[in-house]
């Protein structure tokens, strides 16, 4: 990478970090002002500054960047995980990123202007929650700030007092009446929630609990029970105001649990148990004169790692790699592993290559000949296909995790170590046991539905 003088690099980074704006009103340009949070994603000038950084800092030939950039860590990690085209065989495309097909529409522009807050507009996850539509509509009201709380009615002169009707000590806001009021808190504590439960803003609090499927109480999923508790508290509040009825928190909690249990029972689908079979999984040596590339991705807490290993037809280690890719999701990690692994095989001058991944999504993306070029995955899929053109013979297939231990271990190492471009000609110590296990063709039992194939691969050849 070309080294610019320090003062020139500082000048470029100053352009990226120190932002100022001016506006034009009635034909006159106002004085400049600086945003408090600097340049943000979606800023109209940010693409041009990013291009400036790409051109002058010369990132592309060494993509993903191997040296730390003079940018905040979260931005650096996002850049590191981004796919770019390795070849010029794909023309640039002008696309509108706020629509699925990349085509501009008045509807998407309107939503962008008037509903830019994605927390309140992208609520598809909410309507998928396992609860009655009444509860889901109540959740929607929370996110739209549409609950007629005392403070809201007081602000529009519809109510004399903004105080909570249950405790009469604090203003009634959505977060107060649904969580922080002493009455509401007593209801939540009946379900033995931890102290950390009473933190966060209302939208983030609701979203995190509705998406929580890790626990249940009396065979009721927590996200179902959570939605019933919210509406139950609100109904208790309304009964107190309009009918003068009061209920103690333990009794209300029991009523809520009964309703949530009834809903869960009546809406439980009990599909017939699919008959299963136990098959034996092992790593399979490639065909004679072929090499085998196994790749895997790792993701934990949005941190990404990829890894891969190339072996000969005797199962001997030829080369392996692990790499840290910043932040993202597991599909990004799996695709990075595929691209880096194929590129490594091409650079070694291999002629015949079998490729295995334990990610069905990767195989399906490689199969999909109609993947739109507006897809975020199109660059990496196009890169892999372009690289594979250099190989006279190749195959790509799915394998079970039990047959991909080496690649998965290398991917985890890349994520945890945060090392980039770690390529080993000798087998790393962390995969020695897996290598020995694979060379002996040891089997691991796996239970699969009878409808699944009894072998551990699906073949997709370059026919």
UniProtKB/TrEMBL annotation:
Keywords: Nucleotidyltransferase, RNA-directed DNA polymerase, Transferase. Signal peptide: none annotated. Residues 297-413 form the RNase H type-1 domain. Transmembrane segments: none annotated. CDD domains: RNase_H_like. It comes from the Eukaryota. Pfam families: RVT_3, zf-RVT. One of its GO terms (molecular function) is RNA-directed DNA polymerase activity. Residues 104-188 form the Reverse transcriptase zinc-binding domain. InterPro entries: RNase_H-like, RNase_H-like_dom_plant, RNaseH-like_sf, RNaseH_domain, RNaseH_sf, RVT-Znf. PANTHER family: OS05G0353850 PROTEIN, REVERSE TRANSCRIPTASE-LIKE PROTEIN. This is Reverse transcriptase.
């Amino acid at each position: 990478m070309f080294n610019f003088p320090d003062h020139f690099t500082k000048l470029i980074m100053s352009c990226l970090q120190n932002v100022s704006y001016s506006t034009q009103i009635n034909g006159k340009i106002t004085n400049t002002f600086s945003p408090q949070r600097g340049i943000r994603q979606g800023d109209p000038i940010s693409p041009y500054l990013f291009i400036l950084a790409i051109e002058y800092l010369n990132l592309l030939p060494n993509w993903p960047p191997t040296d730390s950039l003079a940018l905040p860590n979260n931005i650096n990690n996002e850049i590191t995980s981004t796919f770019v085209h390795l070849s010029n065989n794909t023309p640039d495309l002008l696309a509108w990123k706020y629509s699925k097909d990349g085509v501009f529409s008045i509807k998407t522009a309107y939503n962008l202007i008037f509903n830019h807050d994605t927390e309140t507009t992208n609520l598809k996850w909410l309507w998928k929650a396992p609860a009655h539509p009444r509860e889901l509509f109540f959740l929607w009201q929370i996110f739209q700030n549409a609950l007629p709380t005392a403070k809201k009615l007081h602000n529009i002169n519809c109510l004399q007092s903004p105080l909570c009707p249950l405790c009469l000590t604090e203003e009634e806001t959505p977060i107060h009446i649904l969580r922080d009021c002493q009455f509401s808190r007593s209801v939540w504590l009946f379900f033995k929630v931890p102290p950390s439960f009473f933190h966060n803003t209302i939208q983030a609090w609701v979203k995190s609990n509705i998406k929580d499927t890790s626990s249940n109480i009396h065979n009721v999923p927590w996200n179902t029970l959570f939605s019933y508790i919210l509406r139950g508290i609100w109904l208790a509040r309304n009964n107190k105001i309009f009918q003068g009825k009061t209920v103690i928190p333990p009794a209300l909690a029991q009523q809520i649990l009964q309703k949530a249990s009834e809903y869960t029972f009546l809406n439980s689908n009990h599909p017939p148990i699919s008959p299963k079979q136990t098959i034996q999984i092992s790593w399979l040596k490639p065909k004679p004169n072929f090499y085998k590339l196994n790749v895997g991705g790792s993701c934990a807490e949005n941190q990404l790692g990829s890894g891969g290993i190339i072996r000969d037809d005797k199962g001997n280690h030829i080369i392996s790699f692990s790499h840290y890719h910043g932040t993202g999701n597991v599909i990004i990690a799996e695709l990075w592993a595929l691209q880096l692994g194929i590129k490594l095989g091409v650079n070694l001058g291999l002629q015949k290559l079998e490729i295995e991944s334990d990610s069905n999504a990767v195989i399906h993306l490689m199969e999909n000949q109609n993947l739109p070029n507006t897809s975020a995955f199109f660059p990496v899929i196009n890169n892999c296909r372009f690289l594979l053109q250099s190989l006279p013979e190749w195959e790509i297939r799915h394998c079970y995790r039990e047959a991909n231990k080496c690649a998965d271990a290398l991917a985890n190492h890349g994520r945890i170590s945060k090392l980039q471009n770690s390529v080993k000609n000798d087998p790393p110590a962390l995969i020695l046991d897996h290598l020995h296990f694979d060379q002996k063709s040891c089997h691991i039992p796996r239970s699969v539905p009878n409808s699944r194939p009894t072998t551990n691969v699906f073949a997709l050849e370059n026919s």
